Amino acid sequence: MLRILYFAWLRDQLGCPGETLPLPQGVRSVQDLIDRLRARGGAYGEIFARPELIRVAVNHSFATVDAPVAANDEIAFFPPVTGG
Amino acid sequence: MLRILYFAWLRDQLGCPGETLPLPQGVRSVQDLIDRLRARGGAYGEIFARPELIRVAVNHSFATVDAPVAANDEIAFFPPVTGG
Amino acid sequence: MSCVTVRVQADTFDATHETALLLRRRDDVGGVGAFTGIVRGGGGLVALELEHYPGMTESMMRQIAESACTRFGLTGCTVIHRVGRLEVGMPIVLVLCAAAHRKAALEGTEFMMDWLKTSAPFWKREEFSNGRSEWVQPRAQDDAATARWGTLGT
Amino acid sequence: MSCVTVRVQADTFDATHETALLLRRRDDVGGVGAFTGIVRGGGGLVALELEHYPGMTESMMRQIAESACTRFGLTGCTVIHRVGRLEVGMPIVLVLCAAAHRKAALEGTEFMMDWLKTSAPFWKREEFSNGRSEWVQPRAQDDAATARWGTLGT
Protein backbone atom coordinates (compact mmCIF):
# COMPACT_ATOMS: atom_id res chain seq x y z
CA MET A 1 0.00 0.00 0.00
CA LEU A 2 1.10 3.56 -0.73
CA ARG A 3 1.26 5.88 2.31
CA ILE A 4 0.66 9.59 1.67
CA LEU A 5 1.34 12.15 4.43
CA TYR A 6 0.48 15.87 4.63
CA PHE A 7 2.13 18.35 7.02
CA ALA A 8 1.68 21.91 8.33
CA TRP A 9 -0.78 24.06 6.34
CA LEU A 10 -1.32 21.35 3.70
CA ARG A 11 -2.75 19.09 6.41
CA ASP A 12 -4.81 21.99 7.83
CA GLN A 13 -6.31 22.85 4.44
CA LEU A 14 -6.90 19.24 3.39
CA GLY A 15 -8.32 18.45 6.86
CA CYS A 16 -6.39 15.19 6.83
CA PRO A 17 -2.92 14.06 8.06
CA GLY A 18 -2.59 11.36 5.41
CA GLU A 19 -4.05 8.32 3.75
CA THR A 20 -3.17 4.78 2.76
CA LEU A 21 -4.19 3.48 -0.63
CA PRO A 22 -3.18 0.96 -3.29
CA LEU A 23 -0.80 2.43 -5.88
CA PRO A 24 -3.23 3.92 -8.44
CA GLN A 25 -2.91 2.46 -11.91
CA GLY A 26 -0.66 4.49 -14.18
CA VAL A 27 1.12 6.28 -11.29
CA ARG A 28 4.88 5.89 -11.82
CA SER A 29 6.28 9.22 -10.57
CA VAL A 30 5.60 11.89 -7.97
CA GLN A 31 4.22 14.05 -10.80
CA ASP A 32 1.69 11.32 -11.69
CA LEU A 33 0.56 11.25 -8.04
CA ILE A 34 0.27 15.05 -7.91
CA ASP A 35 -1.91 14.93 -11.05
CA ARG A 36 -4.23 12.34 -9.45
CA LEU A 37 -4.53 14.33 -6.21
CA ARG A 38 -5.23 17.54 -8.13
CA ALA A 39 -7.96 15.78 -10.11
CA ARG A 40 -9.89 15.25 -6.86
CA GLY A 41 -10.81 18.95 -6.94
CA GLY A 42 -11.70 20.98 -3.82
CA ALA A 43 -8.78 21.72 -1.50
CA TYR A 44 -6.73 19.02 -3.30
CA GLY A 45 -7.38 20.74 -6.64
CA GLU A 46 -6.24 24.11 -5.28
CA ILE A 47 -3.11 22.90 -3.50
CA PHE A 48 -1.81 20.47 -6.11
CA ALA A 49 -2.35 23.04 -8.87
CA ARG A 50 0.49 25.04 -7.25
CA PRO A 51 3.41 22.61 -6.95
CA GLU A 52 5.84 25.53 -6.38
CA LEU A 53 4.40 25.80 -2.83
CA ILE A 54 5.04 22.14 -2.07
CA ARG A 55 8.05 20.04 -1.14
CA VAL A 56 8.05 16.26 -1.48
CA ALA A 57 9.82 13.45 0.32
CA VAL A 58 9.86 9.82 -0.84
CA ASN A 59 10.71 7.35 1.93
CA HIS A 60 12.14 10.11 4.19
CA SER A 61 14.38 11.70 1.52
CA PHE A 62 13.70 14.94 -0.33
CA ALA A 63 12.63 14.18 -3.91
CA THR A 64 11.76 15.97 -7.14
CA VAL A 65 8.52 15.51 -9.09
CA ASP A 66 10.20 13.13 -11.55
CA ALA A 67 11.17 10.71 -8.75
CA PRO A 68 9.70 7.21 -9.24
CA VAL A 69 6.88 6.02 -6.98
CA ALA A 70 6.37 2.32 -6.20
CA ALA A 71 3.86 0.33 -4.18
CA ASN A 72 4.67 0.49 -0.40
CA ASP A 73 6.46 3.85 -0.71
CA GLU A 74 5.84 6.63 1.82
CA ILE A 75 5.25 9.94 0.03
CA ALA A 76 5.03 13.15 2.09
CA PHE A 77 3.85 16.56 0.88
CA PHE A 78 4.64 19.67 2.93
CA PRO A 79 5.57 23.36 2.68
CA PRO A 80 9.21 24.52 2.79
CA VAL A 81 10.59 23.80 6.25
CA THR A 82 10.99 26.48 8.94
CA GLY A 83 12.69 24.80 11.90
CA GLY A 84 15.90 25.62 13.72
CA MET B 1 56.18 55.53 42.97
CA LEU B 2 56.57 53.56 39.74
CA ARG B 3 55.24 49.98 39.87
CA ILE B 4 56.91 47.43 37.59
CA LEU B 5 55.39 43.96 37.13
CA TYR B 6 56.78 40.83 35.46
CA PHE B 7 54.67 37.87 34.30
CA ALA B 8 55.08 34.29 33.07
CA TRP B 9 58.64 33.29 32.06
CA LEU B 10 59.93 36.85 32.59
CA ARG B 11 59.03 36.55 36.27
CA ASP B 12 60.50 33.03 36.45
CA GLN B 13 63.82 34.11 34.92
CA LEU B 14 64.05 37.35 36.91
CA GLY B 15 63.00 35.49 40.06
CA CYS B 16 60.77 38.43 40.98
CA PRO B 17 57.09 39.31 40.36
CA GLY B 18 57.70 43.05 40.38
CA GLU B 19 59.14 46.03 42.18
CA THR B 20 58.21 49.51 43.33
CA LEU B 21 60.68 52.33 42.85
CA PRO B 22 60.83 56.09 42.37
CA LEU B 23 60.76 57.11 38.70
CA PRO B 24 64.49 56.98 37.76
CA GLN B 25 65.90 60.30 36.62
CA GLY B 26 65.84 60.68 32.83
CA VAL B 27 63.19 57.96 32.28
CA ARG B 28 60.43 59.45 30.14
CA SER B 29 59.38 56.49 27.96
CA VAL B 30 59.03 52.72 28.11
CA GLN B 31 62.22 52.50 26.02
CA ASP B 32 64.10 54.53 28.65
CA LEU B 33 62.90 52.10 31.32
CA ILE B 34 63.90 49.07 29.22
CA ASP B 35 67.39 50.57 28.83
CA ARG B 36 67.72 51.01 32.61
CA LEU B 37 66.56 47.46 33.32
CA ARG B 38 68.94 46.06 30.71
CA ALA B 39 71.81 47.97 32.25
CA ARG B 40 71.37 45.95 35.45
CA GLY B 41 72.95 42.99 33.65
CA GLY B 42 72.36 39.33 34.63
CA ALA B 43 68.87 38.03 33.78
CA TYR B 44 67.70 41.63 33.28
CA GLY B 45 70.48 42.24 30.80
CA GLU B 46 69.57 39.11 28.82
CA ILE B 47 65.81 39.65 28.73
CA PHE B 48 65.74 43.39 28.05
CA ALA B 49 68.33 43.01 25.29
CA ARG B 50 65.59 41.16 23.34
CA PRO B 51 62.58 43.49 23.31
CA GLU B 52 60.99 41.48 20.44
CA LEU B 53 60.16 38.78 23.03
CA ILE B 54 58.42 41.23 25.34
CA ARG B 55 55.05 42.95 25.41
CA VAL B 56 54.41 45.96 27.58
CA ALA B 57 51.35 47.48 29.27
CA VAL B 58 51.16 50.93 30.83
CA ASN B 59 48.35 51.28 33.38
CA HIS B 60 46.55 48.13 32.10
CA SER B 61 46.66 49.08 28.39
CA PHE B 62 48.99 47.62 25.78
CA ALA B 63 51.69 50.15 24.91
CA THR B 64 54.63 50.55 22.54
CA VAL B 65 58.18 51.33 23.59
CA ASP B 66 57.73 55.02 22.77
CA ALA B 67 54.82 55.38 25.22
CA PRO B 68 55.48 57.99 27.95
CA VAL B 69 56.13 56.85 31.52
CA ALA B 70 55.26 59.05 34.51
CA ALA B 71 55.65 58.73 38.28
CA ASN B 72 52.89 56.49 39.77
CA ASP B 73 52.42 54.55 36.51
CA GLU B 74 52.08 50.75 36.54
CA ILE B 75 54.32 49.23 33.87
CA ALA B 76 54.02 45.49 33.13
CA PHE B 77 56.43 43.39 31.05
CA PHE B 78 55.33 39.97 29.80
CA PRO B 79 55.56 37.52 26.87
CA PRO B 80 52.88 37.43 24.13
CA VAL B 81 49.64 36.18 25.69
CA THR B 82 48.42 32.59 25.28
CA GLY B 83 45.00 32.47 26.94
CA GLY B 84 41.61 31.44 25.60
CA MET C 1 35.88 8.14 15.75
CA SER C 2 33.29 10.87 16.05
CA CYS C 3 30.17 10.54 18.08
CA VAL C 4 26.82 11.86 16.84
CA THR C 5 23.76 12.41 19.03
CA VAL C 6 20.43 13.42 17.51
CA ARG C 7 17.18 13.92 19.44
CA VAL C 8 13.69 15.34 18.88
CA GLN C 9 11.90 16.00 22.16
CA ALA C 10 9.25 18.12 23.88
CA ASP C 11 11.39 18.78 26.96
CA THR C 12 14.12 21.36 27.30
CA PHE C 13 17.83 20.48 27.19
CA ASP C 14 20.92 21.20 29.27
CA ALA C 15 23.89 22.48 27.25
CA THR C 16 26.32 21.95 30.15
CA HIS C 17 25.34 18.30 30.50
CA GLU C 18 25.42 17.67 26.73
CA THR C 19 28.86 19.31 26.51
CA ALA C 20 30.17 17.05 29.28
CA LEU C 21 28.96 14.00 27.31
CA LEU C 22 30.98 15.13 24.27
CA LEU C 23 34.12 15.32 26.44
CA ARG C 24 33.67 12.00 28.23
CA ARG C 25 36.54 9.53 27.74
CA ARG C 26 38.27 11.84 25.22
CA ASP C 27 41.42 13.93 25.55
CA ASP C 28 41.52 15.29 21.98
CA VAL C 29 38.87 18.03 22.29
CA GLY C 30 40.16 21.62 22.37
CA GLY C 31 36.82 23.37 22.14
CA VAL C 32 33.07 23.03 21.80
CA GLY C 33 31.08 25.43 19.62
CA ALA C 34 27.39 25.82 20.40
CA PHE C 35 24.23 27.52 19.26
CA THR C 36 20.96 27.67 21.18
CA GLY C 37 17.93 28.91 19.22
CA ILE C 38 15.39 30.85 21.27
CA VAL C 39 11.73 31.82 20.60
CA ARG C 40 12.10 35.55 19.86
CA GLY C 41 9.17 37.81 20.79
CA GLY C 42 7.82 40.91 19.10
CA GLY C 43 4.67 41.79 17.13
CA GLY C 44 2.48 40.27 19.83
CA LEU C 45 3.95 36.77 19.49
CA VAL C 46 3.10 34.56 22.46
CA ALA C 47 4.37 31.14 21.43
CA LEU C 48 5.40 28.86 18.59
CA GLU C 49 3.89 25.47 17.90
CA LEU C 50 6.53 23.20 16.38
CA GLU C 51 5.50 20.28 14.21
CA HIS C 52 7.78 17.74 12.54
CA TYR C 53 7.84 14.62 10.35
CA PRO C 54 8.80 11.76 12.69
CA GLY C 55 11.29 9.41 11.12
CA MET C 56 12.43 11.76 8.37
CA THR C 57 13.41 14.42 10.92
CA GLU C 58 15.79 12.15 12.80
CA SER C 59 17.17 10.81 9.52
CA MET C 60 17.89 14.33 8.16
CA MET C 61 19.35 15.50 11.47
CA ARG C 62 21.71 12.52 11.50
CA GLN C 63 22.75 13.15 7.88
CA ILE C 64 23.51 16.80 8.69
CA ALA C 65 25.46 15.88 11.83
CA GLU C 66 27.50 13.16 10.10
CA SER C 67 28.24 15.48 7.22
CA ALA C 68 29.50 18.14 9.67
CA CYS C 69 31.72 15.57 11.45
CA THR C 70 33.35 14.53 8.18
CA ARG C 71 33.68 18.00 6.69
CA PHE C 72 35.11 19.73 9.78
CA GLY C 73 36.87 16.76 11.40
CA LEU C 74 34.70 17.02 14.51
CA THR C 75 35.32 14.65 17.40
CA GLY C 76 31.58 14.68 18.04
CA CYS C 77 28.38 16.63 17.67
CA THR C 78 24.94 16.85 19.19
CA VAL C 79 21.66 18.24 17.82
CA ILE C 80 18.54 18.44 19.96
CA HIS C 81 15.38 20.00 18.48
CA ARG C 82 12.25 20.56 20.51
CA VAL C 83 8.67 20.14 19.25
CA GLY C 84 5.29 21.19 20.64
CA ARG C 85 4.30 24.56 22.09
CA LEU C 86 7.20 26.82 23.07
CA GLU C 87 6.67 30.26 24.60
CA VAL C 88 8.70 33.40 23.92
CA GLY C 89 12.14 33.15 25.57
CA MET C 90 12.22 29.35 25.53
CA PRO C 91 15.03 27.38 23.84
CA ILE C 92 14.07 25.54 20.61
CA VAL C 93 17.24 23.95 19.32
CA LEU C 94 20.73 23.11 20.55
CA VAL C 95 23.70 22.36 18.31
CA LEU C 96 27.08 21.41 19.80
CA CYS C 97 30.26 20.70 17.81
CA ALA C 98 33.42 19.43 19.52
CA ALA C 99 36.78 19.62 17.74
CA ALA C 100 40.52 19.86 18.36
CA HIS C 101 40.49 23.57 17.41
CA ARG C 102 37.99 26.43 17.73
CA LYS C 103 37.72 27.22 14.02
CA ALA C 104 36.33 23.77 13.17
CA ALA C 105 34.05 23.78 16.21
CA LEU C 106 32.48 27.15 15.35
CA GLU C 107 32.26 26.55 11.59
CA GLY C 108 30.67 23.16 12.21
CA THR C 109 28.06 24.87 14.39
CA GLU C 110 27.20 27.39 11.64
CA PHE C 111 27.06 24.63 9.02
CA MET C 112 24.67 22.52 11.10
CA MET C 113 22.34 25.44 11.89
CA ASP C 114 22.20 26.49 8.23
CA TRP C 115 21.30 22.98 7.08
CA LEU C 116 18.82 22.40 9.91
CA LYS C 117 16.96 25.59 8.93
CA THR C 118 16.47 24.45 5.33
CA SER C 119 16.56 20.65 5.38
CA ALA C 120 15.13 19.24 8.58
CA PRO C 121 11.33 18.81 8.31
CA PHE C 122 10.11 21.10 11.08
CA TRP C 123 7.35 23.68 10.70
CA LYS C 124 6.49 26.54 13.04
CA ARG C 125 3.07 28.04 13.65
CA GLU C 126 3.03 31.44 15.39
CA GLU C 127 0.46 32.14 18.08
CA PHE C 128 -0.28 35.85 18.77
CA SER C 129 -1.78 37.59 21.79
CA ASN C 130 -4.90 38.56 19.78
CA GLY C 131 -5.68 34.88 19.19
CA ARG C 132 -4.46 34.90 15.58
CA SER C 133 -2.30 31.96 14.52
CA GLU C 134 -0.30 31.46 11.32
CA TRP C 135 2.36 29.27 9.75
CA VAL C 136 5.83 30.83 9.51
CA GLN C 137 7.02 31.53 5.97
CA PRO C 138 10.52 30.37 5.02
CA ARG C 139 13.15 33.12 4.67
CA ALA C 140 15.14 33.49 1.44
CA GLN C 141 18.25 34.34 3.48
CA ASP C 142 18.16 30.88 5.07
CA ASP C 143 18.39 29.28 1.63
CA ALA C 144 21.26 31.63 0.76
CA ALA C 145 23.09 30.76 3.99
CA THR C 146 22.83 27.04 3.23
CA ALA C 147 23.80 27.45 -0.44
CA ARG C 148 27.29 28.70 0.49
CA TRP C 149 28.16 25.22 1.85
CA GLY C 150 27.49 23.51 -1.49
CA THR C 151 25.93 20.07 -1.07
CA LEU C 152 25.31 18.20 2.16
CA GLY C 153 26.87 14.91 1.01
CA THR C 154 29.66 13.62 3.22
CA MET D 1 20.75 48.00 26.04
CA SER D 2 23.23 45.16 26.00
CA CYS D 3 24.46 43.43 29.10
CA VAL D 4 28.11 42.44 29.52
CA THR D 5 29.40 39.98 32.13
CA VAL D 6 33.13 39.37 32.56
CA ARG D 7 34.69 37.07 35.17
CA VAL D 8 38.09 35.54 35.99
CA GLN D 9 37.77 32.62 38.39
CA ALA D 10 39.35 29.37 39.54
CA ASP D 11 36.06 27.46 39.58
CA THR D 12 34.29 25.93 36.61
CA PHE D 13 31.23 27.51 34.98
CA ASP D 14 27.76 26.39 33.89
CA ALA D 15 26.88 27.34 30.30
CA THR D 16 23.19 26.51 30.81
CA HIS D 17 22.93 28.84 33.82
CA GLU D 18 24.88 31.65 32.12
CA THR D 19 22.66 31.34 29.02
CA ALA D 20 19.52 31.64 31.16
CA LEU D 21 20.92 34.87 32.66
CA LEU D 22 21.32 36.35 29.15
CA LEU D 23 17.64 35.59 28.41
CA ARG D 24 16.19 36.89 31.69
CA ARG D 25 13.68 39.70 31.28
CA ARG D 26 14.28 39.90 27.52
CA ASP D 27 12.08 38.84 24.61
CA ASP D 28 14.35 40.04 21.77
CA VAL D 29 16.90 37.19 21.76
CA GLY D 30 16.66 34.73 18.86
CA GLY D 31 19.82 32.78 19.59
CA VAL D 32 22.89 32.39 21.75
CA GLY D 33 26.27 31.47 20.24
CA ALA D 34 28.79 29.86 22.54
CA PHE D 35 32.32 28.55 22.69
CA THR D 36 33.85 26.49 25.50
CA GLY D 37 37.62 26.07 25.39
CA ILE D 38 38.91 22.77 26.77
CA VAL D 39 42.38 21.61 27.89
CA ARG D 40 43.34 19.34 24.99
CA GLY D 41 45.63 16.41 25.78
CA GLY D 42 48.36 14.76 23.73
CA GLY D 43 52.16 14.57 23.91
CA GLY D 44 52.00 13.55 27.57
CA LEU D 45 50.25 16.75 28.70
CA VAL D 46 48.73 16.38 32.16
CA ALA D 47 47.54 19.90 32.99
CA LEU D 48 47.84 23.62 32.25
CA GLU D 49 48.64 26.25 34.83
CA LEU D 50 46.93 29.51 33.86
CA GLU D 51 48.33 32.80 35.09
CA HIS D 52 46.91 36.28 34.43
CA TYR D 53 47.43 39.98 35.13
CA PRO D 54 44.67 40.92 37.62
CA GLY D 55 43.07 44.22 36.77
CA MET D 56 44.28 44.42 33.18
CA THR D 57 42.66 41.05 32.39
CA GLU D 58 39.19 42.17 33.44
CA SER D 59 39.67 45.50 31.70
CA MET D 60 40.67 43.86 28.37
CA MET D 61 37.88 41.26 28.62
CA ARG D 62 35.36 44.04 29.12
CA GLN D 63 36.76 46.03 26.18
CA ILE D 64 36.52 42.96 23.94
CA ALA D 65 32.96 42.17 25.09
CA GLU D 66 31.72 45.75 24.66
CA SER D 67 33.32 45.94 21.25
CA ALA D 68 31.52 42.72 20.21
CA CYS D 69 28.18 44.07 21.50
CA THR D 70 28.54 47.25 19.43
CA ARG D 71 29.91 45.60 16.32
CA PHE D 72 27.40 42.74 16.10
CA GLY D 73 24.41 44.38 17.80
CA LEU D 74 24.41 41.77 20.56
CA THR D 75 21.73 41.92 23.25
CA GLY D 76 24.32 40.66 25.72
CA CYS D 77 27.50 38.69 26.14
CA THR D 78 29.39 36.80 28.80
CA VAL D 79 33.07 35.85 29.08
CA ILE D 80 34.34 33.67 31.89
CA HIS D 81 38.02 32.67 31.94
CA ARG D 82 39.47 30.28 34.48
CA VAL D 83 42.91 30.55 36.10
CA GLY D 84 45.01 28.12 38.15
CA ARG D 85 45.73 24.46 37.43
CA LEU D 86 43.41 22.81 34.91
CA GLU D 87 43.72 19.15 33.93
CA VAL D 88 43.21 17.67 30.46
CA GLY D 89 39.51 17.65 29.55
CA MET D 90 38.60 20.55 31.82
CA PRO D 91 36.92 23.73 30.50
CA ILE D 92 39.11 26.87 30.44
CA VAL D 93 37.00 29.61 28.90
CA LEU D 94 33.34 30.28 28.10
CA VAL D 95 32.12 32.90 25.64
CA LEU D 96 28.38 33.48 25.11
CA CYS D 97 26.85 35.97 22.63
CA ALA D 98 23.09 36.61 22.54
CA ALA D 99 21.51 38.32 19.52
CA ALA D 100 18.27 38.58 17.57
CA HIS D 101 19.67 36.36 14.79
CA ARG D 102 22.10 33.44 14.64
CA LYS D 103 24.63 35.06 12.29
CA ALA D 104 25.41 37.89 14.75
CA ALA D 105 25.47 35.48 17.71
CA LEU D 106 27.97 33.11 16.05
CA GLU D 107 30.16 35.83 14.50
CA GLY D 108 30.27 37.64 17.84
CA THR D 109 31.49 34.41 19.47
CA GLU D 110 34.30 34.00 16.91
CA PHE D 111 35.30 37.65 17.26
CA MET D 112 35.50 37.43 21.06
CA MET D 113 37.54 34.21 21.02
CA ASP D 114 40.00 35.61 18.46
CA TRP D 115 40.57 38.77 20.52
CA LEU D 116 40.78 36.90 23.82
CA LYS D 117 43.52 34.66 22.40
CA THR D 118 45.70 37.62 21.41
CA SER D 119 44.75 40.48 23.74
CA ALA D 120 43.72 39.25 27.17
CA PRO D 121 46.78 38.88 29.45
CA PHE D 122 46.68 35.16 30.25
CA TRP D 123 49.64 32.81 30.03
CA LYS D 124 49.62 29.02 30.05
CA ARG D 125 52.30 26.72 31.40
CA GLU D 126 52.11 23.08 30.29
CA GLU D 127 52.77 20.30 32.78
CA PHE D 128 53.79 16.92 31.31
CA SER D 129 53.63 13.40 32.71
CA ASN D 130 57.45 13.17 32.81
CA GLY D 131 57.59 16.13 35.19
CA ARG D 132 58.70 18.61 32.53
CA SER D 133 56.94 21.98 32.53
CA GLU D 134 57.08 24.78 29.96
CA TRP D 135 55.38 28.02 28.93
CA VAL D 136 53.12 27.78 25.86
CA GLN D 137 54.37 29.69 22.81
CA PRO D 138 51.87 31.95 21.02
CA ARG D 139 50.63 30.69 17.63
CA ALA D 140 51.02 32.86 14.52
CA GLN D 141 47.60 31.67 13.32
CA ASP D 142 45.97 33.30 16.36
CA ASP D 143 47.40 36.68 15.35
CA ALA D 144 46.16 36.10 11.79
CA ALA D 145 42.66 35.19 13.04
CA THR D 146 42.47 38.40 15.04
CA ALA D 147 43.89 40.58 12.25
CA ARG D 148 40.89 39.86 9.99
CA TRP D 149 38.65 41.85 12.38
CA GLY D 150 40.70 45.07 11.98
CA THR D 151 40.91 47.03 15.22
CA LEU D 152 39.14 46.30 18.48
CA GLY D 153 37.83 49.86 19.01
CA THR D 154 34.05 50.10 19.41
From TrEMBL, chains A, B:
Gene3D superfamilies cross-referenced by the UniProt entry: 3.10.20.30
Protein family per UniProt: Belongs to the MoaD family.
UniProt entry keywords in alphabetical sequence: Nucleotide-binding
This protein's name: Molybdopterin synthase sulfur carrier subunit
GO molecular function: nucleotide binding
InterPro entries: Beta-grasp_dom_sf (IPR012675), MOCS2A (IPR044672), Mopterin_synth/thiamin_S_b (IPR016155), ThiS/MoaD-like (IPR003749)
Species of provenance: Komagataeibacter intermedius AF2
A Gene Ontology biological process term: Mo-molybdopterin cofactor biosynthetic process
Cross-referenced PANTHER family: MOLYBDOPTERIN SYNTHASE SULFUR CARRIER SUBUNIT
Record's GO cellular component terms: molybdopterin adenylyltransferase complex
Automatic annotation (TrEMBL), chains C, D:
Signal peptide: none
Name of the top EC class for this enzyme: transferase
InterPro entries for this protein: MoaE_sf, Mopterin_biosynth_MoaE
Molecular function, one GO term: molybdopterin synthase activity
Pfam families named among the record's database cross-references: MoaE
Catalytically driven reaction(s): 2 [molybdopterin-synthase sulfur-carrier protein]-C-terminal-Gly-aminoethanethioate + cyclic pyranopterin phosphate + H2O = molybdopterin + 2 [molybdopterin-synthase sulfur-carrier protein]-C-terminal Gly-Gly + 2 H(+)
EC number(s) from the headed UniProt entry: 2.8.1.12
Gene3D superfamilies: Molybdopterin biosynthesis MoaE subunit
Record pathway: Cofactor biosynthesis; molybdopterin biosynthesis
Any one GO biological process: Mo-molybdopterin cofactor biosynthetic process
SUBUNIT field: Heterotetramer of 2 MoaD subunits and 2 MoaE subunits. Also stable as homodimer. The enzyme changes between these two forms during catalysis.
Job of this protein: Converts molybdopterin precursor Z into molybdopterin. This requires the incorporation of two sulfur atoms into precursor Z to generate a dithiolene group. The sulfur is provided by MoaD.
Family: Belongs to the MoaE family.
Protein name, as recorded: Molybdopterin synthase catalytic subunit
UniProt source species: Komagataeibacter intermedius AF2
